[in-house]
Amino acid sequence: MNRGPGAAGDGVEGLRWSEFQGRLRGYVAGRVDPAWTDDVTGDILLRLLQNKERLKQARNPLAWAYRVAANTITDHYRRRAVESQALAQAQGEAASLPPTAEEEEQEAERRRIEACLMPFILDLSPKQAEALVLTSFQGLSQAEAARRLGLSVSGMKSRVQRARSELKRRLLACCEFEMDRRGRVMGMVPR
Known about the structure:
single chain, Rna Polymerase Sigma Factor, Chain: A, 2 strands
């Protein structure tokens, strides 16, 4: 029989180790995000192991073990809050940095492509053009664009899909494109 801090004769009210682990995991699962359950349970078990003498000497070892568990869960949330705050601060600092040369080149390329596509887009029906501009150039999700235009999400998706199909048809009629194996545009020659 596998014995651990919760095994019979170890003072935790006669619970077997596997039974104690199962109960502890259930306790933790009800208090933390499922993605963190195993990590927090492991932290608790480590603390119990590191303090096994205090566990043996406790008047009510099971209550003491659950107090350790509660404290470990509290520490988990404190640590997550500090990590989230540090991440937000780092993202804020990164956003305030001047763009790198690569980022500037990507932005310049995006503007060149937008300038080439815009005449084709504006030649579409006004509703299709508006759908593409909102979703492809202004960065709105299709759900956000649907709310802005008072459409259902499925209606917006259909409009964007039809607009993209029509734009593709018009581009292929205008130019010949060289594509790589993955279907990405490598080059273009006007017809």
